[in-house]
Amino acid sequence: MSDPRIIDIELDEATILWRNADIEQERRIAIYDLIEENTFKPLRAWNAGYTGPYRLKLAVSDGRLAMDISDEQQNPLESLLLGLGRFRRPIREYFAICESYYQAIRKATAQEIETIDMARRGVHDTAAELLIERLEGKVETDFATARRLFTLICVLHIRG
Questions:
Q1: Which residue, among 37, 44, 22, has the nearest Cα to 99 in the 3D structure?
Q2: pTM (2 d.p.)
Q3: How far separated are the first and last CA of the chain, in Å rounded?
């Protein structure tokens, strides 16, 4: 029986140098939502006969995203490296908008918060589409999963 989904996700703690309470909350929500509902089908493992579920570890090193994929028993299945050059701008924009959003929550009107949140969603959506494009031929995933993965990629880029 096939089960193309992530059942566990781990972020490389050595990659995460700093995070505040707001970012930590974003990380927790993204992981919770991702585990609750996702579509994740690494094509090499799938074609080799392992049809899920999967464990995923994310790390960033030398400007690349490392995705270590393993089976339920934590046996390695495959590792993917994705260049993150095309994500630099969306990551920067996402951080800038998130910072504005967190400040707005504390003192802005509901309309101002909604405007900032719409911009944040727009950047997030564009980055999710880019991630789906970059994973093409490697991993099949849905839009919601890509959005949550992008959030986690951003968490891995926080430098304080």
A1: 22
A2: 0.89
A3: 44
* Count of CB atoms situated within 10 Å of the CB of 102: 16
Domain boundaries, the chain: 6-156
Residue 18 bridge partners (DSSP): none
Count other Cβ atoms within 10 Å, centred on residue 81.
12
Q: How far apart are CA 112 and CA 101, in angstroms?
A: 9
- Residue in 72, 77, 67, 73 with CA at minimum distance from that of residue 46: 77
Q: Which amino acid is at 32?
A: Y
pLDDT at 46: 94
Q: Residue 159: pLDDT above 60?
A: no
What is the C-alpha separation between 104 and 67, in angstroms, rounded?
A: 34
pLDDT digits (tens, 9 = 90+) for 89-127: 998 898 888 788 878 888 888 888 888 889 888 999 999
